[in-house]
Structure formats: C-alpha cells, structure tokens
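Can't paste images in this forum, so I'm doing it all in text. The chain is below; anyone willing to post the predicted structure tokens underneath?
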Amino acid sequence: MVIMTLNCGSSSVKYQVYDWDNRDVLAVGAVERIGQEVSPIDHQYNGEEIVKEFPCPTHKTAIEVIINLITDEQHGVLSNISDIKAIGHRVVHGGELFKQSVIINDTAMATFESMIHLAPLHMPANILGIKAAQEVLPDITHCAIMDTAWHQTMPKEAFLYAVPMEWYENNNVRRYGFHGTSYIYTAKRAAALLGKHALETNVIIAHIGNGASICAVKNGVCIDTSMGLTPLEGLIMGTRSGDMDPAIIPFMINTAGMSADEMDTALNTKSGLLGITGRFTDRRDIKKNAAAGDEACQMAIDMECYRLKKYIGAYTAALGKVDAVIMTAGVGEMASHIRIKALSGLENIGINIDTDKNEKAMCRNAELDISTADSPVRIFVIPTDEELVMTEDTYALLNGTYDIHINFTYSFQSPDYVNKARKAAFARDMVKLPYLRDLVVYPPALIQEMGI
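Text version of the structure:
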C-alpha cells in the first residue's frame, strides 16, 4: 500500500510517497514558485535527485506534474497511480473544532474554509491543495492532519488570554499552537532515547526554522507553547516578530498612518530577522555577515537566542523537572551557533551543553546528544519527520485504527526504530564525519545493525 502526503504552501507543494508495507520512502520532493512563469521541481527517488522546470500556474497543475513524475518510466517510483490508496494533507489550523486528524468530507472542507481568518497566510493554500488533489485523485481517501491537534491538551490557564472572556466565547480567541506533527515525532523519539515511557517524559522542544516555536511537554503531552491564536506569537522568526507589546500596533497606526492590513503584513512578512537585519532571513547569511562585522546581523543572533533562552527558562519553571531539551527543524538541527548561544549559561537549571559536541553536530540524518556527560538534563538534536506522522495518521484513519496520540502507538516510539529513509544517508555522513559516532544516541546493537 502506498500513502502520499502533501504540504501545500501559498506557492509550493511538498510531497512524499511512502511504501507502507516495506516502511520505506519511495520519493520526496517539492514544487516551488507556483503561479510564476516557470516552477522548479526537486524530485528525489531511489538515491537519485533531479531538478526540472514546468509551467505550474495553479496548485492543480503542480499536483498533476508530481503525479506524472512519480509514475514516469525513467524517474518514477510507481507503475500505476492507482497504487496510491490515500493522501494525508497538512492543515495548519483546526481551531477548537478539530482536535485530531480526520478524513476529509464536505463538512470538514466547509469548516476549514470558515477558519481561514485564523491563519490567513496558511489556510487558503492548504484548502487549495486539498481541492486540487481531490480533482486529480477523486477516488481515494483524503485526510487532514491538523497542526494544532497536538496542543489540545493545554490547560485553560495556558491557552486563554487575559482579554475580555467574550472574545474567547464568541470569537474563539485563544492560544492554539502550531508545528504539532513535528512535536509528536520529536517528543516520542525523545522518550525512546531517554528509555522512558512517552507519557512519563518531561521535555522542552524548540522547532526552529523560518517559522519557529517552542513547546513544554509534561508527562508526554503539551502544556504550553509559544505560538498563539496565529503563528505570529512567540520566538523571533525569519519574517515574523514574535512576542511584542500589543500597544505598538495602535501606536504605529496612529503615528505612522499605517492601516490594519499594512500592520498585519509588516508583522508577518517584514519583521523578525528580516526586520532586524534589513536584508536576511537565512541564518547562514546572518552568521556570515555577523562574522564580517555587520552589527545588525550580530544583533539578530543575540536577540533570537535571548528569546529562546527566556522561553527555555520559563518552561523549565512550568515543568518543574526537565528530562531533555530537544532542538529540531532546519536551524535547530544545523545551526550550532544558535544552539550554543541559546543554551549556554543554563547550568544552574541543569542544562549543560558540550561545546565540542555541539560544534560537530551538523547532521540531519541521526539523533545526536550534545550535552555533557554529567548534565542532569540531556540535550538532543532530533531531525524531525512530520511526513511520517502524517503518513501513520493517514494509514490509521484509512483502516479505522486511529486515535489521539495519547492512546495511539506510532512506529517511531520503539527504542529500536530506525528511520530507513535516513539510514543510508547517515552511513555516508559517517564516512565524511566519523566523529559523529560519539554523538549518536542509539544503543550499541542498533548502531551495529546500521553499520555505523
């Protein structure tokens, strides 16, 4: 059985094709710049990678291109499109109506459309992608994997805002949180690495990419997270401001003559690291220019790491006892300079980062430990796998075995789990970076089985 996952952005479609029976990723890729004259597609399959260009004026065209490519005689991985039995779609916002993944029907689609205002940058693209995929593949099951579902365990004191209560009662104004599929994967993997039951584990997880958030997990469930009603709140991000004094909004509207729409655009697309540096959102560019003496870039690093450190301290207080801090997503997995600056100086709360290990931990294909040997709190770098969560939810929905994560067992919860898609890549990493052996968290028997 083949399960496909789609993650549709405003001008992109990311996809994965997964062979359920063999637990193997057949292909992954992304179509970018949808709506422009030419759209590049990066397609990876059977250890190969190709980049092609196609005209993709719409999401439907992009999905048709993907389907044609994965069934192509030369570059494809399927002999027939009928091999695909279901598609799992990432849906950013479920509000209070969807507290778990669901099979998509007309009622679900109408509900998604009613929640566009809660995530106006993300929901329209998600909905477009679902409709396009349903047009191209109308006879299979389509499922929605809700980004907000993981956070439904937050208590009211964490998810409510100190605003008039009727805003919540009449307008659903509350903290929802995002990056839920990433947190499911990394929280369950952290428990396995710690040798603990998933529901007996306290961890702090920082998902740091262009969009960034952080989550406090107590006894295996979310009790707080940094993003709020929308993905704007919390950490400093690529183009989003994160936390700020809300009075800045009317102040700038009144003094600079900005409209509400202009303010929304500024906070979501012109702030964050871009706003601080005036030029960059990519941490690699910021790091390079900071090293060359760009004061704005150095300030961006300082501000981002300080915000991270404050949240880690706050969530340590909220949890009481912390088993591990996890860094994940593109920046969390690869930006050693962000990790060291955010985590240094926290020894008084048991978080001791090993400077040498942290600098060497530049690998997205294995789970690494960058804490000192005597650190009371472990520090793990765990490459996230949101697509696997989406795939397993979709399969379970298709077969009637799905339940919320508290009552559901994922394959990656096993201490013996090996991510097959990353196994070969990690073996190649080991040839170039043999010191990674000292950072890998896997048990010795598993390391031997992987050929490390």
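The chain has two domains: 2-146, 173-381. The chain has 17 helices and 14 strands.
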